[in-house]
Amino acid sequence: MKNENLGTCCNDYNQEIIYSSSDYEWKICKNCDLIYQISNSDRINKVKEIQFNDFIEPSESNKSEFTSVMEKLKKYTNLSDLTFFDFGCADGSYLKIAEKYFKKVQGMEPNPFLKNKAIKKKLDILDDNFLDIEGPFYDVMFTRNTFEYVTNFSDSLTKLMNKLKNNGYFIWRDKFYDYYPKNYSSIDFSDGFNSLPTKNAIKYHLSINRIKIIESRFYFDKSFLIIGQKNNNSKKIYKKKININTIFYNNYLVCNIIFYLSEKIHSIYVLLRKFKFLKLIKKWKITLI
Ligand SMILES: [Zn+2]
Questions:
Q1: DSSP secondary structure of 51-70
Q2: 93-114 mean pLDDT
Q3: Hey, where are the domains in the chain?
Q4: Architecture per CATH, 15-249
């Protein structure tokens, strides 16, 4: 018999089925608003095994963004005495940069193709059973665009956060799926994802893992950056905000319109930032002359 608790979200709360086929099932947790997939299909497992074999190395702008996050973290602590871990480190590009900041860096990558790339860069990549063993413990943990592919979102995040030392920092750069057009019935869409965290789910799961958010940005392109700090004494659980997204989580058309508009706003935002940057350069030039 199938274990009903396996791979579900918050225990003892209603997990409503959004979409169901012979291959997979999409559900939403009524407690935290996490949207997630459950599947026992061999076909899906095989697809997911090779999902990142055409991975492209992070762009220069992604790398410089990572560097700027490291600089941001320096405001809070002295990095050179600390240990760093990248969960889902892909080809190790970010670990390579992190080496310049921390006394020790390690990573984990389940995809064999990417893992090999990282090992070839002489990086310390831990075994795939990393989450299921006790320790090691880190001062800073980082993850980027990983959790949407993780099965057992809630369990995996808890296991990961158990490896963060008290007062340690968690840097989470990922995507959130409020108003994102989710075509659950499309095989291409469903093959691509395991978990679709919403803002409520992200904040709730951080709070139950005793991570206090010290900086957070949710962008119009559906990406977010959170810098959190672990506080073992924290007992405050995030109270879910009423979010009209939950009315639309199953409405592809409405989500598509909202997503289209927010993408437009994002382009204007990027353009304005560039413009502001250009103006700054001009100003500097004038001052230099
Ligand atoms: Zn939940």
A1: TTTTPPPPPHHHHHHHHHHH
A2: 95
A3: 15-249, 251-289
A4: 3-Layer(aba) Sandwich (3.40)
